[in-house]
Amino acid sequence: MRLSRLLCAMLLAAAPAAPALPQDARDAQRPLFPAEQEWLSEHNEARAAVGLPPLRWNHDLRRDAREWAENLAARRAFHHSPDLMREGQGENLWMGTRERYAPWQMIDGFLAERAAFRPGVFPDVSRTGRWSDVGHYTQIIWPETQEVGCATALNASHEVLVCRYWPAGNVMGYRLDPGRHLTRR
């Protein structure tokens, strides 16, 4: 099965942005681990390429991502967390063979969807006609998203990456044209 088919995207109903997530003061002072820095850099390079400001790393989002990644790895499952668990967070998922992929390669799996992206009113943002073919990429370049946190978990054969975003992107009815202001249709 192609890696892109292992990826899954989310769609949220239009909702007001949630308040900023609080970060534990100790976590906020902790330097990023190398994998965290790589995940953040990959996100921010993609955003810079389309004229968007960088995302900030959020340790609380990382904690939430880790909990879900561990849940998926333990159950050998691969699906999005329930909306009620996310509280306004967006979510990207990736799965691959255990310890075979560098952190940047995981994010590049999401960014490869850029080839099918076209500006438009969400969910009509894909050259293929299926928004799910670009949903990871659009979450990364969603103009209103400000923070990200990612984590992985392992089982005997797979590694699961979960990235959480605040506020969530992929909101129905919003025009997505990177580098321009996000507007409601």
Largest sheet: 4 strands, mixed
Percent helix range: 25-40%
How many β-strand runs?
7
The class by helix and strand makeup works out as alpha+beta
Percent of residues in β-strands: 15-25%
Count of alpha/pi helices: 7
Give the overall pLDDT as a whole number: 87
Structural shape: globular
* Rg (C-alpha, Å): 15 Å
Sheet with the most strands: spatial strand order: 1-4-5-2
* Alpha carbon gap, first and last residue: 36 Å
Uncertain segments are 1-19
SSE sequence, one letter per element: HHHEHHEHEHEEEE
Could you characterize what this model shows?
- The chain is of the alpha+beta class and 185 residues long.
- 33% of the residues lie in helices and 18% in strands.
- It contains seven helices and seven strands, in the order αααβααβαβαββββ.
- It has helices at 3-6, 25-29, 34-49, 59-75, 83-86, 103-111, 135-140, and strands spanning 56-57, 90-97, 120-121, 147-154, 158-166, 174-176, 183-184.
- The strands form two sheets. It has a four-stranded mixed β-sheet with strand order 1-4-5-2. It has a three-stranded antiparallel β-sheet with strand order 3-6-7, with no helix packed on it.
- A hairpin with a 6-residue loop joins strand 6 (174-176) and strand 7.
- Helix 3 packs parallel to helix 6.
- The longest helix is centred in the middle third of the chain and has 17 residues, at 59-75.
- Mean pLDDT is 87; it is low at 1-19.
